[in-house]
Amino acid sequence: MSRIGKRLTTIPAGVTVTEADRMLTVTGPRGSLTLGVPEHIDYTVEGDQVRFVLDPAFQETLNVMHGTTSARFSGIVKGVTEGFVKRLEIVGVGYKAAVDASNLTLFVGYSHSVPMKIPEGIKVEVTDNVKITMTGADAVGLGQFAQNVRKVRVPDHYKGKGIRYAGEKVRIKAGKKALSGA
């Protein structure tokens, strides 16, 4: 049995969990998220704790899903109470970003600007034209949007220009000139 799956998840005050048709809906101060529970994993909501129990007949095949379901539920509870944050930095001369109503517009060295629609439930702030802060309750959706923004201009390993996560170290390679000894 999965160690992570056996953990109890405590539901903080101000958070409600409703169950309907193998779907757990968690509602808190930062929104509402839903988790679909696989068929052979049972759950019990006991006061302020939730426990996931794997059917013993499927222990060999669904052991991984037991821990995954428990971890995803814990992440959802954390998301609706505290929320998640992703920070990106834009590095490069003339590179910048701007936010208007529901779009993040990137100016990263192309002949055109790159508009990106901000998904529902994610708030984006741009400071100093080069620092992007994204916040949201859904960790998966937030991480996917941050990765999509980063993919617009992945950091270059020769000059270091591009969009990177805050604190990410980009190893700068030596060019041909440095290798030839000229």
Automatic annotation (TrEMBL):
Pfam families: Ribosomal_L6. GO terms for molecular function: rRNA binding; structural constituent of ribosome. Keywords: Ribonucleoprotein, Ribosomal protein, RNA-binding, rRNA-binding. GO terms for biological process: cytoplasmic translation. The keyword Ribonucleoprotein applies. GO terms for cellular component: cytosolic large ribosomal subunit. The keyword Endoplasmic reticulum does not apply. Signal peptide: none annotated. Residues 91-165 form the Large ribosomal subunit protein uL6 alpha-beta domain. PANTHER family: 60S/50S RIBOSOMAL PROTEIN L6/L9, LARGE RIBOSOMAL SUBUNIT PROTEIN UL6M. Belongs to the universal ribosomal protein uL6 family. This protein binds to the 23S rRNA, and is important in its secondary structure. It is located near the subunit interface in the base of the L7/L12 stalk, and near the tRNA binding site of the peptidyltransferase center. This is 50S ribosomal protein L6.
